[in-house]
Amino acid sequence: MVIQRATTRDQQLQQINQRPETIAVDTTAAPWTDEHRAQEMQKLHLYKNLAMASRTGEFIVQTK
């Protein structure tokens, strides 16, 4: 985006409302596409004694 001096109010508003150019494009892969990471994420997800799991064992027992 090139910043120029706006001469009229309409030009000023148009300039203010312009979106900036994209600086970078995200090229990172999703973490679950890597086999090792996917396995580790699944272990954490299912581990009932860990607060990071989707549900702790205690919570599951309480909701039965």
Q: Portion of residues in helices?
A: 40-55%
Low-confidence stretches: none
Looking at the chains present, what oligomeric state does this protein adopt? single chain
Report the principal-axis shape.
Answer: elongated
Annotation field: number of helices: 3
Q: Label the structural class.
A: mainly alpha
Radius of gyration: 25 Å
Number of strands: 0
- Beta-strand percent range: under 5%
Q: Biggest sheet: strands, sense, closure?
A: none
Distance between the termini: 58 Å
Mean pLDDT over all positions: 77
Order of helices and strands: HHH
Structure overview:
The protein is mostly helical and 64 residues long. It has a domain at 29-64. Helix content is 41%, strand content 0%. It is built from 3 helices and no strands. The longest helix has 12 residues, at 35-46. 0% of the residues are buried. The model has no long low-confidence stretch (mean pLDDT 77).
Characteristics:
64 residues; mainly alpha; 3 helices
Present the secondary structure layout:
Blueprint: H1 9-16, H2 35-46, H3 57-62
What's this, in brief?
The protein is mainly alpha-helical and 64 residues long. The protein contains three helices and no strands.
